[in-house]
Design goal:
Length: 121
């Protein structure tokens, strides 16, 4: 004989969503709560709460750093403007050598303090 399978879902199937097939009192008898109550002198059994263990005040760290871990140095470098050739002046036609617009001809406008040169296509 095959072992009994556990029931999945509710014993009280829905007629429509939110409305069960059986009433509350019918489910009380169907689940056998009357027998549990009769066995315990007319009262449902109460279980004592388990004593709560006090939680530790602070968890110990999961990672302990080694003694020789060096602190990273902060960056002292100051960005300088890019040096351009003397022949590159405003209005010069340049050819882009790298990147998405490789091989395109552009018109040089001026040099900014950041490392980008505005050009006109």
């Amino acid at each position: 004989m095959a072992p009994k399978q556990k029931r999945v879902g509710s014993r009280n199937s829905d007629l429509i969503r939110g409305v069960g097939k059986y009433s509350r009192s019918a489910m009380y008898h169907k689940r056998g709560l009357w027998a549990i109550k009769a066995k315990n002198g007319g009262v449902f059994p109460r279980h004592d709460k388990k004593p709560v263990e006090p939680a530790p005040a602070e968890k110990p760290p999961k990672f302990y750093p080694a003694d020789d871990v060096k602190k990273p140095l902060f960056n002292k470098r100051k960005p300088k403007p890019t040096k351009l050739r003397a022949s590159i002046t405003s209005g010069t036609v340049l050819i882009i050598l790298a990147g998405r617009f490789r091989g395109k001809r552009v018109l040089y406008l001026k040099q900014l303090t950041i490392r980008v040169a505005p050009c006109y296509w």
